[in-house]
Amino acid sequence: MVRIRLNNIELIKKIRLLDKPYLAVADLEKIIGLQRKSLYVILNRLVKSGVLERLAKNIYVLFTESRDLAKIAGELYFPSYLSFEQALSHYGILPQIPYSLTFATPRPSKKLVLGDLEVEYSHLKKELFFGYVMEKGKYIAEKEKALLDELYMVSLGKRSINLSELDLKDIDRTKLDQYVQRFPARIKLLLDSAKSYLGTTPVTLEGKERIKWPRHEIFKENVV
Q1: Do residues 119 and 100 make contact, with C-beta atoms less than 8 angstroms apart?
Q2: Can you tell me the distance from the alpha carbon of 169 to that of 93, in angstroms, rounded to the nearest whole number?
Q3: Which pTM was predicted?
Q4: Are 163 and 206 in contact (CB under 8 A)?
Q5: What are phi and psi of 40, to 5 degrees?
Q6: What is the pLDDT of residues 203-213, one digit of tens each?
Q7: DSSP strand E in the chain: where?
Q8: pLDDT tens digits for 119-150?
Q9: I want to staple 158 with a disulfide (CB 3.0 to 4.6 A). Which of 138, 153, 167, 208 is the partner?
């Protein structure tokens, strides 16, 4: 149960005026007006009383606000956008739900724990940092770009994926061919393998039986 003292009400009002998905210590330092040593004592009290929730070191969220961890993670390490397994799962391409939030960034790779989730930022060269859109306050890769980002990491030996498990019925082949021109040639073989599944949805977990769209024709094929 959140215990709110009368002197906390004005503090809560000031925090909400910031209109931020998270609060950094620097934000709270300006609002509360205390030196860091004294400020941390107050912050610990606010966390214990339930007014604030500590998501990570020096990162907090007000108890009245929603915990949009993906949005917070995107702002904490900017620029970045959701991609790889997280984006593929979001679009229904990958059947599994990832245990972590996966971002692409031109900055150095990094991992952190935010709330109860692991966040993984994977480095992409600046020339590969494109093909993303804003969706509900978060930057996320387009379907085709998320697939290419994943294949690129697989080609580097930094990720693994079973192509036969992917639902690729909605992938735009034209956009895929356009975007891949900006990637190194090493992903061509992987992409060629992925293209054999374009326009299809796996029916079985092994991916050997698939539905082919738009004719809904069921066919079987051997997966190498």
Answers
A1: yes
A2: 8
A3: 0.86
A4: no
A5: -65, -30
A6: 865 546 888 87
A7: 23-24, 52-56, 59-62, 81-82, 100-105, 110-114, 117-123, 132-135, 138-141, 200-202, 209-212, 217-220
A8: 999 999 999 999 999 999 999 999 999 999 99
A9: 153
HSE-CB of 150 using CA atoms within 13 angstroms: 26
pLDDT in tens, 8-55: 778 788 888 888 889 899 888 888 888 888 888 889 988 998 889 999
Distances (CA, A) of 217 to 164, 200, 207, 212, 220: 17, 9, 15, 5, 10
Contact 191, 151 (CB under 8 A): yes
How many Cα atoms are found within 13 Å in the side-chain-facing hemisphere of 100?
13
Q: In the chain, what's the furthest Cα-to-Cα distance?
A: 68
Count of positions (residues) in the chain? 224
pLDDT at residue 64 tops 80: no
Q: Which domains does the chain have, with CATH numbers?
A: 6-62 (1.10.10), 70-220 (no CATH)
Asked whether residue 215 carries a pLDDT value surpassing 50, the answer given is no
Question: CB-based contacts of 187: which residues, under 8 Å, 6+ apart?
Answer: 148, 151, 152, 154, 155, 180
Structure tokens at 209: 């039986």
